Amino acid sequence: MTELPAPRSLVAAALDCRPDSITADSGLGRHPAWDSVGHLAVMLALESHYGVALSDETIRRYDSFAAIAGRYGELSGQTS
Asked: Is residue 24 part of a domain?
């Protein structure tokens, strides 16, 4: 099985920024690169890397790094 990138690396790559610039508080409108276009890039990266289709509700809910990191197990098919 291919190892998937950690959520911070995935978000940083989607936003074309350094991983250390992504904090728990980073999110839509709360990071210089995370505007509406950046949010779309993050959601597309999640869909592509995890092989899932995110619903409109999920896209709205994943508006921060904390929300994405909190659901990492869900996206990767792992359970806690």
From this structure: yes
21-50: pLDDT as tens digits: 999 899 999 999 999 999 999 999 999 998
For residue 68, give its domain range: 7-75
Name the 3-class secondary structure at 64: strand
The domain that contains 37 carries what CATH number? 1.10.1200.10
16-26: burial string, b at 16+ Cβ within 10 Å, e else: ebeeeebeeeb
pLDDT tier, 74 (very low <50, low <70, confident <90, very high otherwise)? low
